[in-house]
Amino acid sequence: MTAPLIRSATKRQFLIQLGLDPNDDRTSQTYWLLKDEAIRAYEAQLQGRRDLLRPEYANQDPPYAAAHFTAAAFSHVVRLIYSTATPTTRAYYNRGRTTQGDNWVISWMLYHVCRYRDGRNIRARSREFHADDDLDDSTGSGSSSTSSMTHTAGTFYDAARNVNRR
Q: For residues 134 and 156, what is the distance between their CA atoms, to the nearest angstrom?
């Protein structure tokens, strides 16, 4: 198991947390295997499913953000992805298991699949639909002007949730 990573973390941060080299071509292949499983599960289980939305979003039209789904619905899809994983992807999913029974690796990937379909993301509305597949921080320095996290004295700012976290 590796330490959990917040869902709004960049692709580079995600890959490094999994122990993968963002500059290695094999990493790209692994990433696409993980992403493909999340896309298939999203399309089969969540896409357009108004009955799985939290009550405050019940009248909203699709596409939906990850936060629009009930925790139970999102967790169900995470468990489904794990149960149907290939041996290759399961090895990475095993790194994301938490003591609470969650899986941050699958949650991160499913969140990003939803993110690029929910219509809020400028890249999702452009021809660069899967622009998240480019690394957010090509310098490798760990900081990026597009990063959604800012670290300060043991805390970080999660821009996706507009909160400071420890």
A: 23
Strand ranges in the chain using DSSP code E only, listed in sequence order: 149-152, 155-158, 163-165
Q: Are 156 and 31 in contact (CB under 8 A)?
A: no
Pair 105, 34: CB distance under 8 Å: yes
Q: Is 71 exposed, middle or buried (0-12, 13-18, 19+ CB in 10 A)?
A: exposed
Q: Which residues of 102-132 are buried (b: 16+ CB within 10 A; e: fewer)?
A: ebbbbbbbbbbbbbbbbeebeebeeeeeeeb
Supply the pTM of this predicted model.
Answer: 0.73
Model confidence pLDDT, tens digit, residues 112-123: 999 877 555 544
